[in-house]
Known about the structure:
Elements (H helix, E strand, L loop, with lengths): L1 H9 L9 H15 L5 H33 L1 H6 L7 H4 L4 H20 L3 H20 L6 H21 L4 H22 L3 H6 L5 H5 L1 H25 L4 H20 L8 H27 L2
Helix pairs in contact: 2-3, 2-8, 2-9, 2-14, 3-6, 3-7, 3-8, 6-7, 7-8, 8-9, 9-12, 9-14, 12-13, 13-14
Amino acid sequence: MQAVNKYLSLVKFSHTIFALPFAIIGFVLGVMQEEKIQHSLSFLQRYGYKFLFVLVCMITARNAAMAFNRYLDRHFDALNPRTAIREIPKGEIAAKNALLFVIVNCLLFVAATFFLNNSCFYLAPVALFVILFYSYTKRFTALCHLVLGLGLSFAPIGAYLAVVGKFDILPVIFSLIVLFWVSGFDIIYALQDESFDASQKLHSIPVYLGKSKALLLSRTLHCICAILIIVAGVVGTFNWLFIIAAIGFIAMLVFQQMLVKPNDLSKVNLAFMTSNGIASVVFATFVIADILVFKK
């Protein structure tokens, strides 16, 4: 059990809460596109196994991405006081074991997509490339935050694809919401390492623009996210439950931006974990409720 906890800590398993609720939104949209849900038993019989495989895909893809990031950055993490306590620098998990963990999760991810449909299976290498490639991006581009956002944005469209087997505009909009939301809050998180990244010649928006302008860009990305939420409401012809979800999510975006200032980063973790975790779960709950109540 102690070894399991170390690996869960390695991949920050609790952070799965960010993108997973959006994957569930995409899955439910796909189910409603396929047929009207008559009762819960029918839903479980027809789509229960697909939902389990979607969960496997979400967990294994994120495990692979996070563990690979920790493996690749282990030397930088050992030099950074903030990250020196991570499992690989501390010697709690050997680097070769972390890499093996990545490989196993990649294989499980591909296997899970095989049992979903051909579209998911054929696109699996593309998804893996993006989420693993992110770990290299800080070495050559300040746009690394957008690459991270792109990787997590696969959640809603991927889950929708698992059910329907083809793309559609509404889940794509939800994916864009995730893209700009994650990119915006990752810039906030990267403020903590501005000096260290600069000293190691690593790239990030805070290093490239400075803290004040980086925060301004983060706010711009979150404004785009808010606009896309409104667009999703219009395109999806949602009802009042979605309006509650939209107001709550946008309020959380504003809240986390108010928490962080260029000269005061003491509340970055509160802005990063607490506000985003709450925003994601509450938003998905009300959106899914709106879909199930008003789109039968």
